[in-house]
Amino acid sequence: MTHYENFPVASLLCPAHLRGPIAAIYAFARTADDIADEGDAPAAARLADLAAYHGDLQAIAQGRQPSSRWPEVFVPLQAVLRSQGLPVALLADLLSAFVQDVEKTRAAQGYADRAELLDYCRRSANPVGRLLLHLYGVTHASAMQESDAICTALQLINFWQDLSVDIPRGRYYLPRADCAAHGVCESELLALQGTRANARLIADCVLWARNTMQSGAPLVHRLPGRAGWELRLVVQGGLRVLDKVQALAGGSLHTRPRLHARDWCVMLGRALVM
């Protein structure tokens, strides 16, 4: 479950007429994420590319031609903007989060508390759900709030699943206030040591993500037909990853839990009884 694996990318459960728009949104988000995160380009180059990417977004939003750098992204996205009236501000929010990914690294530059991390999730994850609701024509406030909870939970789950990968790369999402509350030693955490304090911290973060996901789960009953079933599997996939992180009892600092074929059976069974 990487950053955008939870995005329902034109799957068989998605109505055929929405597969193209969803694929266009996914390509936009995936490419921007790669600019921010992949390869060995220095931070200044990544930020320059993200600024150019944002310029192309503004160009197509204003009916102008984008640059020739990412035609596979902006040509189909411009068509979707016209046909679906997508809120451009949500796409811009995603880009602001990718910029933050480049600028905010290491524990000293990490997140002070949960409120600061949630603001990041508001821009890095929640726009995805709101864009999908827009495509499905779901606009009431309660659905938006539940969608935000699910997307935020998926982002948090991704963080706690990827501790063993992110921390060595300088990506640090564990709030400093939570670390202090559990008596965590920063040097031991950065060294990925399996201490009791680190295990308590991760367990508390798992509970936070689980409660957030459960608060948004009623949305599965608001979405029509196959969309509701797909969302059931997304929710259960996230909860199943949390099961695995929790079972490691702090071991996710050195082991990245993954879903296997038997987990899909568990997820399907849970989805059926939601």
UniProtKB/TrEMBL annotation:
Its EC number is 2.5.1.21. InterPro entries: HSQ_synthase_HpnC, Isoprenoid_synthase_dom_sf, Squ/phyt_synthse, Trans_IPPS_bact-type. The keyword Transferase applies. GO terms for molecular function: squalene synthase [NAD(P)H] activity. Keywords: Transferase. It holds the Pfam family SQS_PSY. This is Squalene synthase HpnC. It comes from Verminephrobacter aporrectodeae subsp. tuberculatae.
